[in-house]
Specification:
The protein is of the alpha/beta class. 30% of the residues lie in helices and 19% in strands. It has three helices and five strands. The longest helix has 19 residues, at 16-34. The chain is rod-shaped, with a radius of gyration of 29 Å.
């Protein structure tokens, strides 16, 4: 009785190594894409321990009155509000002879982000540093 031996090679290809490589590449690109930070304005945000690296020189508070849908601006916590057109000259007068001019933005939670960005634009035009004040969690 003659036993035949089959010596044919298999024509199959294992895709498991290819899927491993694709998975590793996917993880690599996800990790590296989160490292890119496209912020246009540089902010000095306070740490959770309420310590900041820059000294506060001027503070600008924005209060939102939802009933009338109006906003009031207060410099250094004064009770007398000023118009938005007066905010920039007031900040310039207070920060004119300082080495690192910095001001802090204190804003209600209901204030639209556009109002905060308007104050950030004042800082950018005048090369001031900005601290966006937050409450600790």
């Amino acid at each position: 009785m003659a036993i035949k031996q089959r010596s044919k090679t298999s024509a199959e290809f294992s895709m498991s190594s290819m899927t491993d490589i694709v998975f590793l590449l996917l993880i690599f690109f996800l990790v590296t894409s989160t490292l890119i930070n496209p912020n246009a304005l540089k902010l000095l945000l306070p740490k959770s321990t309420n310590q900041i690296s820059a000294k506060q020189q001027v503070s600008v508070s924005i209060k939102h009155y939802q009933e009338e849908n109006t906003f009031s601006y207060h410099i250094n916590g004064h009770l007398q509000p000023i118009d938005f057109e007066q905010v920039e000259p007031s900040i310039q007068a207070l920060l004119q002879n300082t080495e690192e001019p910095t001001f802090t933005i204190l804003s209600d939670q209901s204030v639209p982000i556009e109002k905060v960005v308007e104050l950030m634009n004042i800082a950018k035009r005048n090369n001031y540093k900005v601290i966006l004040a937050t409450s600790p969690e």
